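Support request, please re-run this one:
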Amino acid sequence: LFFVMLVLFVLVVALLHNKISEQALKLEECEKIEEIRRSLNNIDSTYFAYNPEYKKHILKISVEFPTGQSNISKVDPQTLSQLTKAGIAIRDQIIETTKSNPEIQYLLIIEGQASKDYYMYNYELSYSRALALRNYWTSQGIEFGNNCEVLISGSGTEGKLRETDEKKNQRFLIHI
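Re-run finished. Output below.
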């Protein structure tokens, strides 16, 4: 009976030790996630506004493409300069965060949008606009590093974060 009680005691102690170790790992993981969230909330508010309802950073720079076009060279030079600074702000934020936590992986989604103007190819157009921004950043030497995967998408005339003034929907959303 003593031997059975001893075995059960050792078994309970071992199981409790495993549970405590699991909880400590989960707590450490939660702390890292919270640290990442805090770092992203510190992204430059000059260029980005955070929407807590949708948990997305919205590019505050008003980019107005000519209707039916995705050629970024048609955008005025001052706006292009601001887009360059916004790309640098994202890059610097990602690099700063990954210095202290090199295992962190980011997913950056550049989403293009289009206005509801009955243009037949708005989905393709919104994708082309997002791709134009990515290509523009690349031409300016803005690369996000190995810890960041960049996806290009176009939501066309759909999506939750749309402006009532349709002309303003010819823009980019940035999801990090």
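Helices lie at 2-41, 77-100, 122-139. The beta strands are 48-51, 56-59, 106-112, 148-154, 172-175.
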